[in-house]
Each structure stands twice: as C-alpha cells, then as structure tokens.
Amino acid sequence: MKKLWKPVQGCCRISDLQCLTCSVSIMVHRVAVIGAGPSGLTSVKACLDEGMVPTCFESSNDMGGLWKFKEVSEPNRASIYRSLTINISKEMMCFSDLPIPADYPNYMHHSKILKYFRMYADHFKLLKHIRFQTVVKSVRQRPDFSRTGQWEVVTEDKDGHEESHVFDAVICCSGHYTYPNLPLKDFPGIETFEGKYFHSWDYKGPEDMYGKRVVVIGIGNSGGDIAVEGSRVAEQVYMSTRRGAWVVRQVVDNGLPLDMKYNTRIVHILFQLLPINFFNWMVEKRLNTMYDHTMYALKPTHRFFSQIPVINDDLPFRILSGAVIVKPNVKEIRGSTVVFDDGSMVEKVDTIVFATGYNYGFPYLPSSVMHKSGQRVGLYKHVFPPNLEHPTLAIVGFIHAFGAIMPQAEMQARWATRVFKGYKKLPSNQAMIKAVEKDTRDIEKNYFVSKLTPLEVDFVSYMDDLAGDIGVRPNLLWLFFTDFPLFKRVLWGPMTAYQYRLTGPGKWEGSRRAIFTQFDRMYQPLKTRQVVEQETSYAGLLIKLSLTIMAGGAAAYYVHVHHPTAISTLMSKFHPQTV
Description:
By secondary structure, the chain is α/β, with parallel strands linked by helices. α1 packs parallel to α10. The two termini are 32 Å apart.
C-alpha cells in the first residue's frame, strides 16, 4: 500500500493502518471476532474480503447468536421464544450479496433465519474461521500497544483450558440482548408475590399460562408477543405499561410488508424537506384511523417517530376481544394482588412476566477503552471507541434503528475493516469525541432514550453515512442519467442492502438484478394458488413517473447547491472536451 506519510523512526512499525500520534502505519492482518451471530458472521466475511485473517470465538456450540433457539435459556447468552417470527421482512433483513431464497416467507420464523445464516456461512466459507465453545475471558491492550496497536485475547475452551492470543485488531459482536433487566426494586412488595415471576428472556411458550391470570409488565415487541400468545390460553392477560406505545401492523396497503412499502429513499428525502411533526401527525392520524390508540388505552406520551413502535398485527384484536386488558404502571404487589398507579387492582394473579428490556455491557473489555457519553457507550459512528491511540477495536451490531440490524452490522463491518486496512483514516481523538457528544445531543433531542435504550439512529441516514465513507453509496444523479430503470427502483423501491453493492469496494455483479427481482422474491411464497391478475393502473404509473422526474430534478438541485462541482464532473463523463 502506498505510504501517505513518512514514518517517524523508532515509534511504530511500518505497515497499513496509520498511527494517529506519529503518522506512521501499523499492520492489521490477524483479527479476532467475538461472537458468531449475524454481526459476527458478516464481520468475518468483511475481514476476508479485505485480505485479513479472522478468528471468530463463539461461546456456544453453534452459530446464529440470538436466532439459535434453545429450550432452556443459558446465562450470558441471548434467548428467544419458540414461536418467534421476525418483524422485518426478508428482503430488508438479508445481507447485501446473498438474497434470501425466493420461496422463504416474507416474515420468517427463527428457524428459517438460522437456516439462512447457515447458507451465508457455507456460501462464503466462514465456518473454518469459527472456534465454537470458546469463551472470551478478556481483551487487553498489549504492553507495546502504542507501537503496534495489538491486543491480547484470553479465551477458555469447553474443558476449561485457557489460551492467550495476540491479534492486530478486535471486532466485538457479542450483542445487546444478553443481560436481562429485572428491576425488582421498582416493584414494592414483589417479595410477597405468591405466584411465579420471570423475565421475558426466560419465556419459551405459553404452556404454563393455561387457565392462569397473567400480568405482563412492559409493552415492547417481546411484551406484546407474549401478551398475545398467552392470551390464547390464559384466563386473562393484563399488560402494564408506563408510557404506552404506538402499535403498527406488519401488513400494510395491498398486503405489502410494512418496511418494503415505507422504508424507501423517496420517503427519506421527504423527511429532509418537511418538518418531523408533520409526519408525526400524518402517521398518528393514519394509525388512529385503524384503531384509536386513546380508545384502546395504548396512546403513548411520546410522538410516533420519537421511539421505535411496537410491531404487532394481533394485539389490537386481542384487546378488542377482551383477552388482553391494558393497564397503567404497577404501583405495588400485595401477595397475589397487583395494584396499579390509577388505584385499580387485579386479584388472584398467578404469573408476572417482566418484559423490561436488557442491560448491555462488554465484560471482557477494560473499562478504560469505553467512552461514556450521556446514558450510552460513546462510539464514533457507533463503531469505534474515540479515545484509543490506534483504531484497532471496533464494536459491530451495537445499533438501534427502525430497520434490520443485519444490513447495518454488515455496513459497520465493511467500514471497520477498511479502517483497519488504512483505506479510511479516522479523525483525531478530540474530533471523534466531539462528534460522539454531538450524536448524543442529537439522539436525546430527536428520540425518547433511557438507560436501557440509549441509542437510536435513522436507518437510511446512518447506512448512507457509512456507505459514503466506504465509497459504496449509490449516486442518484448518476443513475438518473445513465440507468433510469435502476434509478426508479433505488429511489422508489425499498431500501434493501443490495444498493450498497452497485459500485465501489466489494461491488457485486448480481446487485442490479437483485434489486430488479426483489419484489419477485416477495411475491413468490404467496403464489400458492393461480388467480387472475389485476389490470395495471396507467394513471397511477403516470403520476409515479411524473414524481420520479421531479425527484430527479430535486436531486440535481440538491447536488448543485451542496456540491457545485459534482454536475461538471458528471457532465465531463459525457462530454470530456467541454469541461
């Protein structure tokens, strides 16, 4: 690799990644990846794509992380319930260079998701880089870290044998659904409760709820799923919520998956042009048209786009049928009686389920490497600790957005490995810390955050930001002039990860076809009976074409205002002699 700076003698050894303090490069070749869930798998692949040698340490006996179902929850590992089906559609959750098979359902059961991850690992030959049943005990900077940027990783195998390794870089992919938050001190009298209580982390199915009176505390996606499933067998289910929630359906207009309909670039552009409160009003009005959140006792204290909503098609009907009764926050517990903030009470309660979220942490890392910002771990672009001398430690998958974590983790891994190789230089420590603090202020301003959910980002903005650093963000203006059919699909179609394989490092020749066939794969599992097709609405197509041309003009104007040289650069590709 070409050197950008002359090395300073006696400080760092000469190689790929530039030292922030002395402008000398360091070599990153061997990389430790902690965890073989989706974030770990895509990180292993990203390392291989950049010519590095990854070793992935996985504490369990299989890949998949959160999506590997086990009948008994195991300490310090993520856990899911038997019936769990993902609330992100398959086209929106898959990795950018391996579409999920067309015959797979749009919203997949956890067993199908795990099968897809196995396909991914087999296709890209990742398994040989994974060491199963190996726990990472500690990750520490080497004594010569200032010169080498290296880490010492101590692991323990299933027989209890410890081993020390030296790596040039480390990627942490251990997730954030590992440590259940069970705030018993916030529920006076819990020690007097005569029934059974547990965290949703321990929930596997409704078998123990038959004929019981159940209180579910918390109205997140897990709490909603457990309340709905339990209400089919329980005598009565009560769902307690402190703040309420907006509830949306997975199936929207014309039967399309929610995210394929609305998670698009054109919607994102409109968000940049119009005030957020307009969209809050519009979406809330639409939701209340389907089921009035005030009437259903669901109406939250926050606006719609301030927090990720509950995605649950069944919950409104279970409330309407009386199977689930929504209650305010629990004030106290007296034996088998649960008392709520409004003074109402439920007697003869048999089971309490705490769907109260998760704590997060990286117990194998020294506390000194983690920068605290507000209520969250402060990471530069949610990946790199900003206070390290060398950027050889990355956190991948520690992100929260109204979108699938898989493509976000993949983008983080692609960016992190480019940084490791020295293709992308990070700003100074002071600049990164300043950026982290600005992110924290923006998050606290735009979203409802707490100790348990301290982080949220806009899916499209975040993906595009990292993609821009890598050099893989699609150029809408270029597509408008050179490939209009593709431009229409990138602008109007769902924000699938294939868009980030059209150009630049890691370009995949199949990406254009994947974009053109994404709706074919969506329709395929629904084609179980031959029916007469509906006629195409040409008026609708004409309106959409007009709006597309207008959007292209808006994109050109935006580029002209914010990047005035881009137009001339683009035109030079067509008429080099005129520029």
